[in-house]
# Entry
Amino acid sequence: MKEIVVISGKGGTGKTSMVGAFAALAADAVLADCDVDAADLHLIVNPEVKETHDFVGGKRARIIADKCAGCGKCREVCNFDAVSLDGPANGVVEKTYTIDPIACEGCGVCVRFCPVDAIEFKDTVNGQWFISDTRFGPMVHAKLGIAEENSGKLVSLIRKEAKRIANERNSNFLIVDGSPGIGCPVIASISGADLVLAVTEPTMSAHHDLDRVVELTAHFAVPTAICINKFDINPEMAAEIEKTAGQKGLRVLGKIPYDVAVTKAQILAKSIIEYSSNGLKRQIESLWQSTMDMLNTKEST
Amino acid sequence: MSKGFTVAVASGKGGTGKTTIAVNLAHIAAGLGRKVQYLDCDVEEPNGHIFLKPQITGRRAVTVDVPQVDTDKCTGCGECGRICQYSAIVHITGNNVLTFEHLCHSCGGCIRICPVDAIKPRLLAIGEIELGTAGNVGFVHGRLRIGNVRTPSLIKKVKSHIRKGCLAIVDVPPGTSCPVVEAVKGADFVLLVTEPTPFGLNDLKLAVALVRQMGLPFAVAINRYGLGNDEVEKYCKSENIEIILKLPDDRRIAEAYSTGQMVVDALCEYKEQFLGLAHAMAGR
Amino acid sequence: MKIAVTSQGGSLDSQVDPRFGRAAYFVIVDTSTMEFEAIENQNIAASGGAGIGSAKTVIDAGVQAVLTGNCGPNAHKTLTAAGIRLFTCLSGTIAEAIETYKSGKAVEASGPNVKSHSGMDA
# Structure
């Protein structure tokens, strides 16, 4: 079983569209959507949810108004500006303290220092994760709650479950849709992967972002290759990206032209492979073949 | 005109055109004589500088506090390990205390709880901030150190440079989780940028839920208008959401963008739309 | 001597779990009597703290050595600070791993042999 994680650095380069296409091409794959705070893969692969689970990301503090003595110690010790004096009167004080649940980081310091034990500290359900069936195979995905911390914990959980399923079924591939950026969620999605495919586009912004994301994958010693999407928007820039990739010892596994078919397929909730019958389909097939070749010739680390 | 006003340019989906709209708006508004600042809060992948091409006049390292234990003072009570929710400080035995700075959230709990004051804050570098000017636009951006995870802390630092009396345009990272919350917090207005595709609509709904939860006034900008279908427009109408800008799906815009050019400079016919947007911001 | 072995199950016939931080169980064995107890690992779902939490679990169990497959940097740092010897690259059953250790064939780790978060793999 080989795990391939598709990331980009810059958003909007075509990660999810590419993952949808790979799902259609891969014989015997498990899918994982690790872009938990803006998940889109389900719009193409149309999962039928079989299992739903709550995700507890951490804890949250909540002041019990009736117990609050109004001393303000909580506000004094909170490093995250989460505490305000705008709660209702209780029998003892005219205004009590409250904690903004969005600002609360769940550090528990106010809970520890409250002299009257007025603060409750509970596990919070920050989102949900799902195990589903799709026409391409099983899929593990999630929905992180709005404004929640995306620490990578949910991403790690999705990958772990997807791997478990892939191993149980003896699947050939685990294909992971990653998220933009270089932070925790991306780090959690790439470590230990067999191959990271960085999808980029021929723009200065994407080139700049690609440099940072391949520095990240190098930092975590994960084998990395590149795909240049929409390359014909600026072929000179595409060539520059290829040159930089070469200097860093990174292979460009494919150059895909811009094609409005990608959007048309998306509107019909189809993968590019199911929708397109022309050159675009062939090029993505060729990209997938190159990706499989690279995965199969790599020594496992 | 002298009243400060902060506009956060956000989206749920990446690649919809936040930076394009933010930099062009900053450029045009400055041209109208307003005091304008552009603050790039996409600290993981900042790109605004590619278009504004600022002259950098200041650079400073940004740090957060992590714990440092004085083992001579430590009595081995273990309180620090017990209060930490993140396993960033671990009491082994006696005065043998380990710290894991990359797990630390800088809550200060261990520092406060230590009964013998044996724990002091130590500075951990998380990235840098650069300040400069791009013509008449005041420029600020943050750049996170590769491998560091303190995105929201760096974003907060970038925003601390918002000056009074300015039209401050905050370029927000993609998504709907805590970095976005940190960047959007305190804005007077949020401009949600989307594209008229299923992915664009899906993520726009998430972003709308976020700004509504935060209680912030907002409107939508549709970029690449004409590309997909009209579901985004229908959604906005059904939700009574104002569509304040429609930029067409023009390959020439993509081409100009790809070389780091401002749309309004490369394609003058789009100046009008950004002037309209700048005036709309003035009127809020 | 007390040794902790990372395990996929709760008995001496169980297979060694190749991960430390996210191992399913820690089987604590007294090597002279071969008496043992299995501790279910409470750290599996944790993100950054799993290795550390698991290290604390075995430290609290009073072991002098750990036998496992792979061990990441946070766990390695914690175990080392507690003076616990770490042996990696072990496999087979728990009983077999103990035999390997007793016969002097177990490889003592000089550092972590996997990167952080590698145990996220199944």
